[in-house]
Amino acid sequence: MASTGMAKAVGVMLATGAALMAYVAFAFEGQEPYRIDTTADRAIMWAVLGVWFAVYVVLGCFAGYDAVRLSRRRDLGALQASANLVKLVAVPFFILNLFALTQVVLVVGANDSDRLGLDGFLLGLLLAFLTYVVMLPTSAYGVAMLVLLRKDDRIGRVFFGVTMAMHFLFVVDVLSTIVVVEVARRILGTARPPGRFSKHLLTGVLAAGSAIAVPWLVFFAILLIVHHDDHYYLDSGFLSGALYHLAYGVSVEFILLVVVPVVPLVAFRTAVRLFLMDDLETLGRTARNVKLVMIPLFIQNFAVCTIVVFFVSLIPVILTRGALLFAGPGGFALIGIFTLTGLVPAAIGTYLMLLPTSIYSIAYFSLLLRHRAITPGAYVLHTLLQFVYVADIISTLIITRRQAPTPALV
Known about the structure:
Elements: H1 5-27, H2 39-72, H3 76-110, H4 118-138, H5 140-151, H6 157-166, H7 172-188, H8 196-226, H9 236-246, H10 248-259, H11 262-276, H12 280-293, H13 295-319, H14 329-357, H15 359-370, H16 376-385, H17 391-399
C-alpha cells in the first residue's frame, strides 16, 4: 500500500520549498544586519518563492481531490501511506520556513523603524496566513482518512472530533496524523511493533546528554569550592575551559529535542504503537527510564541558564560602571528588563526540552485509564504534572511503581 503519485508530487514540492527556505535563511549570513546583497537579489527571491507558492497551491488542490477520491474508493491503505508521507516531508519545510520568514520579517521591520516596525508586523501576519495555506493540503489525506474511518464506525465521535481539529493546527497536526495513521494500520493489520532502536532512542539521547552533564556538574562544584580557597593547586583555567566546552552538550540536546524534532517524533510514534499494542510494561518502564536519565541534564541546563541570566543582568551594571545600582527604582527596573530578556528565552527553551520527555508518561497514563486502573481525576492531575518542572519526574515515578494495572491506583 504505497502513497499515490499526487502525494509524492506534493512531497517533492515541499522538499523543494524546504531547499528554498534554507537558501533564504542562509542568505542573510555574513551580510549587513537583516539584509541580502542587493535589491535585485531580493526581487529574485520573492519571484522564485511566489512561483513556488502558486505551483504548490495548484498541486494542493489536486491533492485534496485525490484524497476525496481515495476516501470514496475506501482505499484506507493508500490514504494512510499518503498522509504519512506528506505530513512527515512537510516537517523540514515548516522548520526552515519559520527561520527564513522570521528573518524576512526582521528585514522589513528594521527598515521601518520610524513606525516601530509596523510593516514588519503586518508582513508577519501575511506570511503566517500564507504558511497556513501551505499547511492545509498536507492535512488533506488525514482528513479524508478520518472521514472514512468515522463513516465505517471504526473510531468514536470524540476521537474523530479531537483529531480532526488538530489536523488544522500547526505542530499538533503532525502528531494527529501519526496517531490516525497508526490507528489505520492497526485496522488494516499492517501495524508493526516498534523496534529496539526506536524504543530506546529518546532514552539514549537523554542519557548521552546526562553523561556530559555529570562531569560538568562535578567541575562546576570544584570550581565553586576552589574559587574561595587561596591555597588550591588545581588549574582553575582548565576547569573554566572544561565547563565552557561541556556546556555545549545542552545546546546539542536542545537541537535534538526541539529544533530538529526527529527524536521526539520517533518517540511519539513509538508511544502510540505501544499504546495500541496494549503494552503497559514497556510504556511504564520506558517512561520511568526517560525521567530518571534526564535528571543530570536538566540540572546542568538549570545551572547554565542561571549563569547566562546572571551575566545578562549584569550588562547594564557593567556598562554604567556600577552607577545604575545607585539610580533608584529606575535603575533596578532597567536591570530587571535585562534579566527578563535572558530569563524568558531560557525558561521557554527548557520547557520545550521538557515536553518530549513526557511522551511515554502520558501514553502510559492514558493506557492505565483505558484499563480503568487509574481514576479520571488522577489521570488529569498526573497528566498536568507532566508539564511542571520536577513534578513531572515525581509523578512518573509514583504512577510507574506498579507495572500491572490496579484499580486502587490514584
